[in-house]
Amino acid sequence: MRVAALQMNSGTQPGPNLDQLERLAGEAAGQGATYLLSPEVTVVFAENRDGLKAVAGPWENNPDVARVGAIARKLGVSLHLGSLAVALPDGRFANRSVLFRPDGSIAATYDKIHLFDATLPGLRNYRESETYAGGDAAVVSEAPGFPLGMTICYDLRFPALHRALAEAGAKVISVPAAFTVPTGEAHWEVLLRARAIETGSWVIAAAQAGTHENGRSTWGHSMIIDPWGRIVSELGGDGPGIAVADIDLSAVDDARGKVPALANARRFSLTLSASGPTVFAREDVSA
Question: Which residues form a coiled coil (predicted)?
Answer without folding.
Answer: none
